[in-house]
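Figure 3 (text version): structure tokens given as input.
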């Protein structure tokens, strides 16, 4: 399969963490070109992703914009239509990390303030609603592969727990769960599959920025100790599973959640995250 013949993966949040690893993995297996979106905060990491995709013999087209804004979704899909063409998108990976953290009531840890309505709206748009917008626009423009596309959203076991300051993120992931189930039924007859992948805690910029360094060090150690493997999941392990989903083996995954936590559960994480001394 030549570069021109290859279908495309659309990766939202394509720089560091899971998005970057997914782009690299999908370029290698099953050999997809990559159309990536990022907000421009990690330019060096974006360049590394681009280099890795081209080294795999695939095209890489990166766009700096907010993939969680409806207006930017429409503009990006217009550009994708020109770059890739109809029926070209085999995989959509929704790996956007653009959340506001805080509590619903005023909290000393969060400067005595509560989450504002604009923070709630932005977080839901980026972390949940945008998944629907991308599905709608890719479908409307006829860009999804005729032999069946895979639309993948990401979640984690922390959202099943009570993690101080993460309530808004948990709510967006609950919305994603509902969106995946309904879109799976709506898109299934056309051969498309919509999946929510739940994986264990991974070390990414988005996660590390949510905690103080000493908090993250303790959380990382505690979380590793609460998995059967005695270590954290890696973004490369998640990315390899996304490659599997993109292939024939992913045909029967649809309209639901796949557990890739390696045994790490929200119940175990309660003790790791909700210790008062770690959130002071």
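Below: residues designed for each position.
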């Amino acid at each position: 399969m030549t570069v021109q013949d290859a279908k495309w993966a659309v990766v939202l949040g394509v720089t560091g963490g899971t998005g970057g690893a997914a782009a690299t993995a999908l370029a290698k297996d099953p050999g997809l070109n990559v159309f990536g979106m990022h907000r421009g905060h990690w330019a060096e990491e974006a360049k590394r992703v681009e280099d890795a995709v081209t080294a795999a013999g695939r095209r890489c087209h990166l766009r700096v914009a907010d993939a969680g804004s409806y207006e930017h979704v429409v503009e990006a899909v217009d550009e994708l239509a020109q770059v890739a063409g109809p029926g070209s998108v085999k995989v959509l990976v929704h790996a956007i990390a653009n959340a506001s953290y805080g509590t619903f009531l005023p909290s000393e840890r969060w400067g005595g303030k509560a989450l504002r309505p604009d923070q709630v709206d932005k977080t839901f748009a980026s972390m949940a609603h945008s998944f629907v917008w991308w599905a709608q626009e890719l479908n409307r423009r006829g860009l999804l592969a005729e032999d069946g596309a895979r639309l993948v959203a990401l979640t984690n076991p922390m959202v099943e727990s009570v993690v101080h300051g993460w309530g808004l993120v948990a709510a967006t992931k609950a919305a994603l769960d509902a969106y995946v189930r309904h879109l799976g039924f709506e898109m299934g007859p056309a051969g498309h599959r919509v999946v929510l992948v739940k994986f264990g805690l991974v070390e990414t910029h988005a996660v590390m920025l949510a905690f103080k360094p000493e908090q993250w060090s303790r959380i990382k150690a505690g979380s590793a100790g609460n998995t059967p493997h005695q270590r954290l999941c890696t973004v490369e392990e998640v990315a390899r599973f996304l490659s599997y989903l993109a292939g024939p083996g992913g045909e029967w995954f649809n309209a639901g959640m796949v557990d890739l936590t390696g045994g790490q559960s929200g119940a175990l994480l309660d003790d790791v995250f909700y210790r008062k001394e770690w959130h002071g």
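Residues 130 and 136 are 10 Å apart (CA to CA).
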